Amino acid sequence: MNAQIAALVERIRSLEGELEAELAKRSAELRIGLDHGRIVFEQELLRRHRELRVRLPHYLLNARPLVVLTAPVIYSLIVPFVLLDLFMTIYQAVCFPVYGIAKVRRRDYLVFDRGHLAYLNAIEKLNCAYCSYANGLIAYVREIASRTEQYWCPIKHATRVMGAHARYSDFEDYGDAEAYRNHLARHRASLKEKEEPRT
Fold first, then answer.
1. How far is the C-alpha of 187 from the C-alpha of 151, rounded, in Å?
2. Radius of gyration of the chain (CA)
3. Is residue 59 part of a domain?
4. Nearest to 82 by CA among 136, 19, 7
5. Residues 105-129: pLDDT tens digits?
6. Distance separating alpha carbons of residues 141 and 80, to the nearest angstrom
7. What integer pLDDT is reported at residue 131 of this predicted model?
8. Helices and strands in the chain: count of H runs, count of E runs
9. 41: helix, coil or strand?
């Protein structure tokens, strides 16, 4: 990777850190805190949340018919999601030790904290749990796949890739055979280190 690209990647990572800091400030403004890993709201805020909850009968009676009809289609995806989860977990448990790749911690990607929000009714909480699982699972699978790609083929594509994973910018340029041969061992060695989840 040339120096200008490396500098841009470093700037992006710095901006991601600034974004995290701003999001943490926003949580503080909303008076949300953690007590021994448990989410805590101020009593006045919790009372206001409960007032804003849409009661279940009202929520169901005001649902658009097409939304209700499409719900089974959305929820039917739970079967392939669970199978994907199972197969990817088995895959990394079997293969990553052989390749010397640090395993991806599933719990870093599957976060279910929206159920603590008092302004959501039971259906909204179920929907949030489903979306948390689906998106967390995709992020978990993507990290497993990106580590696999870094091990076997850390080469950029010739054409632009939409939504490339965070590791992609460190891959070798398409067509740079010398860099690929010279740096493949380094790419593989870096996977052995215990890594924090990437975004």
1. 7
2. 22
3. no
4. 136
5. 999 999 999 998 999 999 999 999 9
6. 13
7. 97
8. 7, 2
9. strand
User: Which of 130, 194, 190 has its CA nearest to residue 154?
Assistant: 190
173 in a structural domain: yes
CB-based contact 33:40 (threshold 8 Å): yes
| Domain total in the chain | 1
Whether 11 is in a domain gets the answer no
CA separation, residue 58 to residues 32, 61, 69, 127, 138 (Å): 28, 5, 18, 17, 33
Report which of residues 194 and 68 the model is more confident about: 68
Query: Which residue has 């739970």 as its token pair?
Result: 78
Task: Name the DSSP class of 115.
Answer: G
Domain that holds residue 143: 66-190
CA 175 to the chain's CA centroid: 31
Phi, psi (5° rounding) for residue 7?
-65, -40
Domain-located, residue 30: no
Q: How many CA atoms lie within 13 A of 77 on its CB side?
A: 12
Residue 198 has pLDDT above 60, yes or no: no
Contact 164, 146 (CB under 8 A): no
Q: Which helix (H) or strand (E) holds 33?
A: strand 32-35
Report in angstroms the alpha-carbon separations of 111 from 28, 89, 93, 191. Answer: 20, 17, 21, 24
